[in-house]
Amino acid sequence: ALRAELDDPAQVPALPYWRMVALDEYRDGVFRTSRGLQQHERRIATTRQVTGRRPGGGPEPVWTFYYEAGVSRFLPITGEFALLRLREARALVANDRAGTLALREEPQAMFAFRIEGLDLGGGLAEPGLAAALRRAGGAAAYPATLLAVPAGAENTAVLDAIVGEITGGGTLTAAEFAERAVGWLERRHRYSMRSTVPAGGEDVLVRWLRSTAPGHCELFAGGSALLARRAGFPVRIVTGFKGGAWNAFEQYYMVRNSDAHAWCELYDEQGRWLR
Predict the structure, then answer these.
(1) pTM assigned to the model
(2) Burial class of 165 by CB neighbour count within 10 A (0 to 12, 13 to 18, 19+)
(3) CA-CA distances (angstroms) from residue 184 to 28, 109, 177, 190, 212?
(4) Residue 27 above 90 pLDDT?
(5) What span, in angstroms and rounded, lies between the C-alpha atoms of 162 and 147?
(6) How many CB atoms lie within 10 A of CB 263?
(7) Using CA atoms, how far apart are residues 17 and 50, in angstroms rounded to an integer?
(8) Residue 136 in contact with residue 226, Cβ under 8 Å?
């Protein structure tokens, strides 16, 4: 899928998460990007340079990406950055709410770009989201989609029971809830690329949560999202790539399509998205 080189091998991250697409709306067992979130897309005229929100000149290494054609028009970025330079001028689409950056058109050949000041910890700030959620009230559109769970008494009963197990009836911070929810899922489900969701009247993800069936990353991420939302935390699903094979001799990550992954970002009390 891509090759990622960095100019300072001493700063090789242990396990980078190459985030690409953010999904906020959950309906009929599928997460997707809602029309409301898409409305925050901002078109950038053909350019070779994009300035990010992080200050430049920091200690982070400079990354150079060689991206294969046919993978996606969304660029793999771990978090906020200072400066992005494309080898060839391209028209882009940015979405500051989703934290994504994409080419206007899917590339037909391999292309390259360079990033300075890349936050490898996945840091993404959105200080205005809490106020926007309060204004949204009970609306169904974005950003209320970040809190939406499947309707119905059966779904609510299962989610509330599990959230009660996770919190013990107490009030937790976003980080505390995330840690406990991950622990609950690890004890309940094992990881597997093959999974059979049991039958039942509830939503498909709710049925998987109440079972002990194994699951792949999409089930773990989706189940985590519904639990956190029911506990009152805004959550989105992010898809992209996890890790890759580090070539210590030539100093680059080789990221394959088999490294594709899905995970959660949970909005915390400091106005930041927690991976």
Answers:
(1) 0.94
(2) middle
(3) 24, 44, 10, 11, 11
(4) yes
(5) 17
(6) 19
(7) 21
(8) no
Helix orientation angle between 217-230 and 153-167, rounded to the nearest 10 degrees: 90
Phi/psi at 220 (nearest 5 deg)? -65, -45
Token representation of residue 214: 């194994």
Instruction: Tell me whether the omega of the peptide bond preceding residue 143 falls within 30 degrees of 0, making it cis.
Output: yes
64 within 8 A of 116, measured Cβ to Cβ? no
Mean pLDDT across the chain:
94
Find the helix or strand (DSSP H, E) in which 156 lies.
helix 153-167
Band the pLDDT of 60: cuts 50, 70, 90.
confident
- Which DSSP helix (H) or strand (E) runs through 165? helix 153-167
What's the token pair of residue 206? Answer: 């709710």
Beta bridge partners of 236: 265
Separation between Cα atoms, residue 12 and residue 18, nearest integer Å: 14
Query: Is residue 218's pLDDT more than 90?
Result: yes
Strands (DSSP E) found in 71-126: 83-95, 100-103, 111-116, 124-125
What is the 8-class DSSP label of residue 258? G
List beta partners, residue 94. Answer: 42, 101
